[in-house]
Amino acid sequence: MPDRVTSRVRALAWWVFATQVLIIGTGGAVRLTGSGLGCDTWPKCTSESFVHNPAMGIHSYIEFGNRTLFFLLEIVAILAVIAVWRFRKQRRDLLWLTIIPALSVFIQAIIGGITVLTGLNPYVVGIHYLASAALVMLAALLVLRVYSGPGPRRLAVSVPLLQTVWIAAIFGLITVVLGILTTGSGPHAGDGGAARNNLDSEALQTVHAVAAYATLLFTAVAAFLARSERAYRVARWAGWSIVVMLFQILVGIAQARLALPPLLVGIHMVLASLLAAGLFLALVETRQRPAKLSA
After folding, report:
1. Which of 5, 68, 158, 258 is the most buried (most CB within 10 A)?
2. For residue 287, what are the β-bridge partners?
3. 71 and 46 in one domain?
4. What burial class does residue 275 get, using C-beta atoms within 10 Å of its C-beta: 0-12 exposed, 13-18 middle, 19+ buried?
5. 115 with 3, same domain?
6. Residue 116: which of 176, 182, 66, 186 has the closest Cα?
7. C-alpha distances in angstroms, 3 versus 23, 100, 104, 235, 274?
8. How many structural domains compose the chain?
9. Each residue of 213-229: pLDDT tens digit?
């Protein structure tokens, strides 16, 4: 086991991040192919089989395939914990950022089980997505931290910039939540018989778009202020978030005009998690290690 951050540790951090994003993509595929109840119980696929539900055909394999990916997440997370274990006292931040995904696999599996047992309740499905997005954010922080040193961090930007980043992050969270509610009111239920939240889809789409444009506006202001203050780390992640949001807007417009094709909805889901990660890192980077510790 390494006694410091090495290229192997950094590679594992990237793997943790990649697998967390991957599970959002595959989870979206389950929903968008109507395979959400391909396995109609949990933890088995059916009362007789762990793998196959004859009544659902290919949908059962899609759903079970997504379930088995959690084993990949767990293996990667455990390897990451092992990689930082020897120097855990010096880098407690890395220890916790690897332990959390290792433990979260079980929590996510339970939420997934509740999702199936409640017949794909749209609010439970939304919680499942929010949990996954939060794990993407923490995995992104893990990647960031394996490229920086340990130690306390202090506020390194002006109060106006800090407030602007916070406002952008809050609007980003509102945008993601509204997106979840909008999807919960639309046609992609994960199964033909699954319930919808019965909210007004058109009204939600409008409010969701307004929140998205507000996020873009405040993120752009944050990027401008950050560059003015030479807070380049904040500016970098604000800029990343702006790029993701521009793609999100294009995909969102295309979705609305093309009657919500599944592929575009899936891309929108993955981009939303990357946007959350970008805004989160911009907020994290408002605090920096003192110069004498960073040297």
Report:
1. 5
2. 155
3. yes
4. buried
5. yes
6. 66
7. 30, 21, 26, 33, 31
8. 2
9. 999 999 999 999 999 99
